[in-house]
Amino acid sequence: MNDKNFKALPIQLSNKLIAEIKEGNSLFQQPVKENGMPAFVKPINPITGKGYSAMNALILGMQRHDDPRWMSADAARYAGNWVKKDEKGTLIEFPKTSDIQAIRTAEGKVIKDDAGVTQTKTVEFDKPQRGQAFLFNGSQLKDMQPLDEFIAKQDEGQTLSPNERAAKLIEDSKAVIIHGGQEAYYDKQRDAIFMPEPEHFENETKYFQAAIHQLAHWTGHESRLNRPMEGKFGSLDYAREEMRAAVAAILIGGELKLGHNFGQQAAYMNNFAKILKDEPFEIAKATRDAQKISNLLLGTTQKREQKQAPEAVGFQKGDEIAYQDTTYKVLETYKTKSIKVEDADGTRKVLKPEYGLYKSLLDAKANPREPEMVLEEEQGQSQEQGQNQKIGR
């Protein structure tokens, strides 16, 4: 990746989004493909069963595959699958906090053992660095489990329909929703969502899609995620918030298998394209915020589901939990609820329930997701106060 012509991944993503917006076929504009399938299918690693972080999920979802499964060539090979001839991978990024490097002498010569094997060491980074990988979709791989079998197994135990899951998510949020009128919007001053009556919509799914989009705006209130939401309608600051809500609705719709529908997209596309052109790294910030939105809304539902299923709470011997840049395996569980774990480097430790890592692993087990790259905050964000309290019209 040292090619001078290589562009950073957020720039690549921004350029592709701009091109699709101009063609009118972006995920914001065309939520359903010609074959009737959702334009965005939630990407998943079929080996670990885990999803991908928001920016990576958007990148993979923009490939428009019906198959949700994605793996690296190496992971596929270990699983007994192979990349088909002439298939090209899709680049993603992930945070690396350590690296395995060869041990060298003072003169820089690699040290090998008696068998000629290079000796290595694990180097910890002061700050997370960008790791990159090329992933291949299940449709690009040989000898994969039939897709319908994989999806059927994925859906085992799920008794609720997508619309029922959406209704539960909305109910669990405890957001105030007032029905009536012709507009769907969030009023920050009143901290309430205003929605037309359900019968105003083409069908029940369209109603829930619109409600979830407004619920994404609702998370920005100062008592929740506290995002800047003061831009006037039609302004670039207003469009930034719309971009975050739109991406979050795509992620949540993919999770619930509800799909998404950015009903007022035409009003924002020019501003979306301008932001992505002038500030291509804004997409990294927008997807990071969208991840927080979806985590908050989906987490509320998942935590309630966990209370209804006590067997899903806590650790079990043999659990393998992806967290940060490594995987922790639970070696032992104790009556005190403490656990002994081993990370991918072979480091073992005992964690007590009051430890931060213990709580983080418990949350990662309940809400398995690829960690999001932490980007440095850019200074100078507009703090201008606007008069319009309607958001997401």
From TrEMBL:
GO terms (molecular function) for this protein are: single-stranded DNA binding
All copies of domain Polyvalent protein metallopeptidase, residue ranges: 164-288
Pfam families in alphabetical order:
ArdcN, MPTase-PolyVal
Which ranges are annotated Low complexity under compositional bias? 380-393
Q: Which residues form the N-terminal domain?
A: 12-105
| Ranges for region Disordered | 363-393
Which InterPro entries does the record associate with it? Answer: ArdC_N, MPTase-PolyVal
Task: Indicate what this protein is called per its UniProt record.
Answer: DUF1738 domain-containing protein
Its taxonomic path starts at: Bacteria, Pseudomonadati, Bacteroidota, Sphingobacteriia, Sphingobacteriales
